[in-house]
Amino acid sequence: MGRAFGLDFPPYMTPLFIIHLLNGFLVYLLARKIKIGTWHAIAGVAFFTLSASAFDAYWKPMYVFDLLCTTFCLASVLLFACRQWILSFLAFWLAYKSKELAVMLPAVLFAYEYWLGRGRYLPLIPFFAVSLSFGIQGILLNPNQDNEYTFRFTLAALGKTIPFYAQRFLLLPFSGLALLALAFVPDRRIWFGLAACMLFLFTLLFLPGRLFEAYTYLPLSCAALALAAAASHVRPAWVVAALVLWIPWNVRDLRRESRAKLALDDEAAEFVDQLQAWSAKHPQVTTLVYADQPRGYHQWGVAAAWNIAHKTVNLPVYFSGTPDAVKAMANQAVAQEQWTWNGRTGALTIQIHLPSH
């Protein structure tokens, strides 16, 4: 898509929304499979698809991995419930290839079989074998020894992650913990939805350096199942009333979050526009050494913008002061970047640095 559309943002949104709506449909099918009534299932899907809690997941194309992981996780559970073991395993594999969050899927399938299935655990052996292999590799062979990708099995980590993810449910402090009250309702469908939500959150709780709202997308789909199951204990009219009361609150949060995101997007757009204009005038300079970037922008964003501006891939982009940047500046002509933003407009300064010899 980068080659086809460059930095024209709208075309990226169509597949994101299609996948998001597909996930809503899978939530509905799974809800019906576990015998949740039609209208209650639709209410659960409405909560999942309209919620502002994971707004980033279907706003930023970089989170397509989270959308696809959710697609394949839900498909795997649904196929497992239909006794399609091989297809379920294939969906599990694709889910993990999309996002490592799927490593807990076998435990979710076990929970399904324990509460809602027929107690057939033998087909779960290959699921757990693969998951165990992935999990051991992820912990023992993790190349990230002391950075934001490093697992922190400490109380300090939980003290940071639990409040963050608990707030994402209704965008109120610790609102997600209110879901645990549903565990007291004697309904195995609720227990399964809650267990799946907690299991998919489990690994995230030990990554305090990676706190992103899009990561709540998959757990939110499972929470929607639990809510739909809980809603089946009351009349549909009460469920509709609850949604009517929730929607204005949700819209308020959506507007508030969108304003903050669009402010960052404005800065990013200003940065990228100027980067493209400079690249068009100096196509012979293909290495970038940057010192600053827009707020909320990451290294891969700068690298992608530089490559798309040159209509290619894999051009070198280095952060100023790193060994690779020093080596590049000593051996070739590079573009040196400085970026400043005053809240309304930004100034991108790029100078061509020539090697001393």
List the main descriptive attributes of the protein structure presented here.
globular; 6% strand; alpha/beta; 59% helix; 357 residues; four-stranded mixed sheet; 13 helices
Explain the overall architecture:
This protein has helices at residues 2-5, 10-33, 38-50, 64-81, 85-98, 105-115, 125-140, 155-167, 188-202, 217-231, 236-281, 299-309, 323-331; strands at residues 288-290, 317-319, 334-341, 346-353. It is an alpha/beta fold and 357 residues long. The protein folds into two domains: 2-233, no CATH class; 266-353, no CATH class. Helix 6 runs antiparallel to helix 9 (188-202). The model has no long low-confidence stretch (mean pLDDT 91).
SSE layout:
Blueprint: H1 2-5, H2 10-33, H3 38-50, H4 64-81, H5 85-98, H6 105-115, H7 125-140, H8 155-167, H9 188-202, H10 217-231, H11 236-281, E1 288-290, H12 299-309, E2 317-319, H13 323-331, E3 334-341, E4 346-353
Parallel strand pairs: 1-2, 1-3
Antiparallel strand pairs: 3-4
Helix pairs in contact: 2-3, 2-4, 2-10, 3-10, 3-11, 4-5, 4-6, 6-9, 9-10, 11-12
- Radius of gyration over C-alpha positions, nearest whole angstrom: 23 Å
Q: What's the shape?
A: globular
Helix fraction by DSSP (H/I, runs of at least 4): 55-70%
Low-confidence stretches: none
Strand content: 5-15%
Number of domain units: 2
Overall average pLDDT: 91
Q: List the secondary-structure elements in sequence, H or E.
A: HHHHHHHHHHHEHEHEE
Largest sheet: 4 strands, mixed
Biggest sheet, spatial arrangement of strands: 2-1-3-4
**Category from helices, strands and their pairing:** alpha/beta
Number of extended strands? 4
Helix tally? 13
N-to-C CA distance: 40 Å
